[in-house]
Amino acid sequence: MDQISSILKIKYPIIQAPMALADSPALVAAISNQGGLGSLGVALFTPEQIREKIKEIRSLTDKPFAINLFAPTTPKKYSEEEKQNTVKTLNYFRKKLGIPNIDQIEIKTASSFEEKLSVILEERIPIFSFTFGILSKEIIQKIKSQGISVIGTATTVREAQLLEKNGVDMVVAQGYEAGGHRGTDLNITHLADALIGTMALVPQVVDAVNIPVIASGGIMDGRGIVASFALGAAGVQMGTAFLCCPESNIHAMHRKLLLESTDESTRLTTAFTGRMARSLKNQFLLEMEKENFPILEFPIQSALVKDIREAAQQQNNADYMSLWAGQASGFCQNKPAAQLFNEFLSEIKEILMKKNKLINID
User: Fold this and answer.
1) What's the total number of domains in the chain?
2) 23 Rama sector, left if φ>0, alpha if ψ -120 to 50, beta otherwise
3) pTM above 0.85, yes or no
């Protein structure tokens, strides 16, 4: 447990996963102030917004925190006809929401990875993490040269080895159970081959690399944390566990459904963004599957569905929102983040005190 804590300068090797939907400097600060590592996903923000979020976090904590970006990917080229056909197909959902049909949509060019990274380097954040791919050695070295620790995300052993080769300080082994987007690098891995459960993935990654491994996916309490250490992980990353905390900025309907969810409530889908992600099942997801509507790759699909998601949020209609959640979402609790974090620590201590009674190997 000391390995990650020493590198990241935190007390406990428990990381709050970066979650764009939670969008909460308050949640980040709450976890960091308790001795863990709070993280903020900023891939969907402009450079100016990223700077403001970093300033807000620093106004709430003087402890280490992490900022997360998506690694840059090369979007698939679609013809205008393919894009417009998908736009028109999605009018089926716009009609249900009572919002105007769209015949054409202009997909605006987002700020580049380089522009966002430039702000992060200027702000000299303590820790940088990334997902959706393998950053080059040159980029990772550029970040580390500023005294910033770097965390990559892997969904296979091969990805973890490439991340280590390119110089990351540690790697998150993201299991199949995790909520939100899969961290799989589409350039090197067939998606179906990267759906590996946390319990199978973590020990294999631990044996394959010489850097600290952070377990992620389905970890919701002290039991999951202790189990992760037993598998060889040096730390854990928990996302869904903190989604229902008051500090999280998720929509009220999202929080309600998480608190009502069970082990059968989630499904992997590309319907919302064009990237595989685990979400609570809802009408949009199920109808997209049933009708076999066309789904374009990220970030095109995300742009095409944006007005539908936004209208659904304004109408408090969870049937058409993206509702990211992990497979263990049934354990979600609506408690302040600091209280929940400390309860996890107490659970860990209780389990470790009882460990010698769990199995007798004499």
Assistant:
1) 1
2) left
3) yes
